[in-house]
TrEMBL record:
<dbReference type="GO" id="GO:0003690">
    <property type="term" value="F:double-stranded DNA binding"/>
</dbReference>
<dbReference type="GO" id="GO:0045910">
    <property type="term" value="P:negative regulation of DNA recombination"/>
</dbReference>
<feature type="region of interest" description="Disordered">
    <location>
        <begin position="1"/>
        <end position="28"/>
    </location>
</feature>
<keyword id="KW-0007">Acetylation</keyword>
<feature type="compositionally biased region" description="Basic residues">
    <location>
        <begin position="16"/>
        <end position="27"/>
    </location>
</feature>
<dbReference type="Pfam" id="PF00538">
    <property type="entry name" value="Linker_histone"/>
</dbReference>
<dbReference type="GO" id="GO:0030527">
    <property type="term" value="F:structural constituent of chromatin"/>
</dbReference>
<dbReference type="GO" id="GO:0000786">
    <property type="term" value="C:nucleosome"/>
</dbReference>
<feature type="domain" description="H15">
    <location>
        <begin position="28"/>
        <end position="101"/>
    </location>
</feature>
<comment type="function">
    <text>Histones H1 are necessary for the condensation of nucleosome chains into higher-order structures.</text>
</comment>
<comment type="similarity">
    <text>Belongs to the histone H1/H5 family.</text>
</comment>
<dbReference type="InterPro" id="IPR036390">
    <property type="entry name" value="WH_DNA-bd_sf"/>
</dbReference>
<feature type="compositionally biased region" description="Low complexity">
    <location>
        <begin position="1"/>
        <end position="15"/>
    </location>
</feature>
<dbReference type="InterPro" id="IPR005819">
    <property type="entry name" value="H1/H5"/>
</dbReference>
<protein>
    <recommendedName>
        <fullName>Histone H1</fullName>
    </recommendedName>
</protein>
<dbReference type="GO" id="GO:0031492">
    <property type="term" value="F:nucleosomal DNA binding"/>
</dbReference>
<dbReference type="GO" id="GO:0030261">
    <property type="term" value="P:chromosome condensation"/>
</dbReference>
Length: 111
């Protein structure tokens, strides 16, 4: 009955606190949502601008659509839920989109 209790693990090395990575500066220029609204407003299509045509317009404006495809889709969904854009065809981020004229009028009145 004289078993020695194992020594506590106090000799374990203390973990150093993790250093946070330096915050990257925010890139200058308009956001993806602003670029999308500009492209849709410039379109003269009656039924709105399709996703493929929107991506072409963004790429023509110098935006890297292949690299930031998920950002484009998230921005589209966000603009539809806010009411800035109306989705005329499709679901989610696919289909055709046009400006919500009621939302635009509200913005003009509030200014």
């Amino acid at each position: 009955m004289s078993e020695a209790a194992p020594a506590p693990a106090a000799a374990a090395p203390a973990k150093a606190p993790k250093k946070k990575a330096a915050a990257k500066p925010k890139k200058a220029g308009p956001s993806v949502g602003e670029l999308i609204v500009k492209a849709v407003s410039a379109s003269k299509e009656k039924n709105g601008l399709s996703l493929a045509a929107l991506k072409k317009a963004l790429a023509a404006g110098g935006y890297d659509v292949e690299k930031n495809n998920s950002r484009v889709k998230l921005a589209l969904k966000g603009l539809v839920t806010k009411g800035t854009l109306l989705q005329t065809k499709g679901t989610g981020a696919s289909g055709s989109f046009k400006l919500n004229k009621k939302q635009v009028e509200r913005c003009k009145i509030s200014l």
